[in-house]
Amino acid sequence: MSEAAIQVRHLIGGEWLGSAGGEARTNPSDTSELVATLPASDVGIVDQAVAAARTAQPLWANATPEFRADCLHKAGELVLARAKDLGRLLSREEGKTLAEGIGEVVRAGRILRYFAGEAIRRHGMTLDSVRAGVDVQTFRDPLGVVGLITPWNFPIAIPAWKSAPALAFGNTVVMKPASHTAAIAATLAAIYEEAGMPPGVFNLIVGPGSIGGALVRHPGVDAVSFTGSQTVGGIVAADAATRQARFQLEMGGKNPLVVLDDADLDRAVQIAVDGAFFGTGQRCTASSRLIVTDAIHDRFLAAMASRMDALRVGNALDPETHIGPAVSETQQAQDIGFVERAIADGARLISGGDPVESRTRGWFVRPTLLADTTAEMEINTSEVFGPVASVLRVKDYDAALETANHGEFGLSAGIVTQSLKHSRHFQRSVRAGMVMVNLPTAGVDYHVPFGGMGRSSFGSREQGFAAVEFYTQIRTVYATA
Which of 260, 386, 387, 409 could share a disulfide with 367, CB 3.0–4.6 Å? Predict the structure, then answer.
């Protein structure tokens, strides 16, 4: 039975605005079910939202840290209390399995609670001056109005980890979520409102990419935090730099998982399957390049194929489903197109690579494993963002490290080995912002820094204690009697 569709609206200055007339979003597991309708929008809503945020910012910045902390803590508690319902909405809207959807909601609630604590923490220093009788102190001030552009693949966790620190440190926010997942973003906005945040502190605007572009270019926005593709990230960087606004970019990865000869085979396979395919591979930290040394290569391929055969692809709400659908028909076609081009380039299909029929019509893709690939193939240089992994066969550890460091990305990298020597060397030598030893490349804690090297990221790290670097500016004060 279909559930009621949500009419998403903009939240601007404490008012829910906008009439029907925008996109209609259907369930990627069952395209006959309408999940949400979006409001009509034009770039004028950006002016309204930024004006509301600018009006609210001084009062929010000058509120006591305890008040800001209380708002964030209450928001976190509300998210956690409603985790099952919110997780179900997330799964219907984005396509994660229900367990993954609920897990993401819980993570968002814990992010909000973490930054409630950070709102109280005073980030500053007292320094000795080189001059007698002079005191020196540094303070962290908010930036002002922050524009957030968030993706569809983690539609409540990423909005939480961007907005929570921005709000904790006294900024006000205008957020533009991905249209695919605007409903779950709107529930977060409503929870912020319910938690007691004053009107204009958190504003939500919904619409196509042109709305996000107008937000980035708006002279009233002091900083922009963006998560999305390299192509769009480059445009965001150019537009923000033109008007000298601060900006932060997270732009994906082509993440290597190295499996050495000495690896425990069962463990290596489980790590690879988890990293490559769960979340339908729609994670920027997914293990999309499996770099396997000679002696274990053939056994690894056989074991991977066997494990993949046991994965059930289907409706995200079915408790027996392991892999949900791609988020959209376009994404499904992109996944299959990458596989077809890889085979044309000489890759060997080991498993998957085709759409999956289900009891309901949806955008299902069978988890795919490709072998006999080379580092220069498109499948190993471009982010697929689907349940597709390619295997590169290498001679030894040195060749594996060289292959892992090939390409423009540098977000996450992993190694499976029992060698302390190789694991220590890999930690220091692989070009990646996050390194996993005997763990999947996907999966990060909410209280530690997140970000990559190369063209995966630009600007300071997100999450945890690193967030203060982006969302505040330093004021240095000299004083004497």
Answer: 387
